[in-house]
Amino acid sequence: MMNRFIPFFAVLLLSLPLKSQNTPIAIEKFNDGIHHWFLEVRDTNYQRHSPENFQAIAKNLIAYQNKDGGWPKNIDWLAQLNPDSVKQALSERYRQSTFDNRNIYPQIEYLAHAYSRSGNKLFLKSAIKGLQYIFNNQHANGGWRGWDVDAITFNDDVMTGIMHLLLDIAQDAPQYSDLPNKIRKQSRKSLNRAVALTLHCQVNVNGVKKGWAQQHDHQTLAPTGARTFELPGLTANESSSIIAFLMRIEKPTPAIVHAIETGIAWLQQSAIYGIRIETVEVPEGTYPGLTLKIDRKQVDDPSAGPLWARFYETDTNRPFMCTRQGEKVFSLNEVNPERRAGYAWYGIWPQKLIEEQYPAWEKKWKQ
């Protein structure tokens, strides 16, 4: 009787790897770069690989990889285009490897998944080459720079994105199981240096630890500016991302626990009530010389909140914004229309962290 079922189970078992191989590998971490690609490329009349065709996408990643192990930013990794032609059309600077716009660590993660699905060693080799780029470009202080300024960069998840990747390796995520021991040791060493630096970057105001900035100076670790409209200040967005990363660390040290608790306290104290941000459509020609389709307005509303500002003054904790010309202002309505509609000055970034993730972390580690 049992023999009658053996062929059925054999077919079932054989079908499992095939199903796995046809399951898409997540591409959401490429979204930022692909979004910028579509902002810059005029001719988008081309074929794209389906997410299920992960081996073709992984081969694209290998084709675009620079000799230093990194990748240029703002590429549509699913595009069925000639990578050499695409890179040739870029300016010299835009061919260079960079972590900007959430770049490099997503490619490494994708290649590792592609290798674990297919066994294609070229994918593993490319992922290792990408990791070497991370190691080689880590600053002596443990940080990584972004695109706009040579500083320790938390903006665009430069530091946190890399640290999440290295933590996955340290915590033995299955897609990294075949990494050589030497690479694993380098990953852990690199991660430890980055975490130590992150803790030191937390801004201390009169003996009280607050949040973090988008960028910090390599030498002094003080908040520093980047683009003209990004003046030095504490930031709710990046601080939330940093705290969320720190909460992933198993058996956190007292220093990590303190950073999380004080960071959460600062976010709670910095919540804004009584205003809301409205996005409104604007007729063509409303702002001469601009092609804006929307605008944003700050509206008083006693029932609104909580909301957080992108930037807070380090000393006063007062929310501020900035014009494209670098003038600090304190109301969204004072920002010029192009930057008002084109930058996230307010958001609810910490809300889920405060209401859900932190209580769960506290329950796990504060008993």
TrEMBL record:
Q: Which domain of life is it from?
A: Bacteria
Give the organism, scientific name.
Answer: Breznakibacter xylanolyticus
Q: Which InterPro entries match?
A: Pectate_lyase
Q: Where is the signal peptide?
A: 1-20
**Keywords annotated in UniProt:** Lyase, Signal
- A family per Pfam: Pec_lyase
Could you confirm whether the keyword Lyase appears in this record?
yes
This chain's protein is named PelA/Pel-15E family pectate lyase
> Would I find Signal among this entry's keywords?
yes
Q: Which GO terms describe its molecular function?
A: lyase activity
